[in-house]
Amino acid sequence: MSEKKKMRSEASSSNSNSSGGGNSRGETVVADVGRRRNTCGYCKSGGPTSISHGVWARSLTVDDYQALLDRGWRRSGCFLYKPEMEKTCCPSYTIRLRAGEFVPSKEQRRVLKRMQRWVPFDVVKPLLDRKRYVVLSDIATENGEHLPPSILENYEEQNDEKQFHGSNDIFVGEDDEMDEPDFEDSDDELDPESSDVQLPKVENGDVGNVLIGLKEVRLRYKDLREAFGSSERRFMETQLHRYMRAVGTELSERIVYSLG
Fold first, then answer.
1. Which side of the chain, N or C, has fewer Cβ within a 10 Å radius?
2. DSSP code string of the chain
């Protein structure tokens, strides 16, 4: 087990109109699919011995991709996954070069100067990401499903009494329906000690700071908790705990967990 690493991420979105997956705001949009068990392509095992936690990426910014790489995530096409090193059959570890100890050669310095002259910073500066949040879509939303009507009705009643402030706050619209997502391993929680990166321990009260997206409204789960029934609240908090263990507490307060 390697030392505990603190991920340094500026999860953000671009103001440009060119973005993947049909998303005009340049946000990162991924769907959590939970723990995955597959056959291993290295040892060619006959059973599901390769264990990882995965998400499908509809669109992904460079900064968010780098933040996931820093936490031990890997990519295969549009599928992002994090191997559980203590449980998978063939654990793989990233070999990294310490940036502070790197000494460029004469040829590398020459190439760097050519690149700096070719791409001046003032030219690319307007294209840099600015916003500090991205969108993480729930897997049920990706399947065209939404929250139960009871949750949306309770939220609309509270929304009439409480004012939400912020540039991204929009009132809730019409009701939709959602069934509980049914995946074979979706209830498995990610073990904080199942990978080479030591994840912070998540306490029960920490889910209140998770950023929730509901009908394009951005707010904390603690402000939305009373809109859920008792059974719905238990299900939601279970999903948020699994989500926080997957991406970490710091990113869970920046990435928008979309409910529809």
1. N
2. -PPP----------SSS--GGG-TT---EEEEEEEEEE--TTT--SSS-EEEEEEEEEE--HHHHHHHHHTT-EEETTEEEEE-TTTSSS--------GGG----HHHHHHHHHHHHHS-HHHHGGGS---S-EEEE-HHHHTT----HHHHHHHHHHHHHS---STT-----S----PPP--TTTTPPPPTTSSSSPPPPPPGGGGGG-EEEETTEEEEHHHHGGGS-HHHHHHHHHHHHHHHHHH-HHHHTTEEEE--
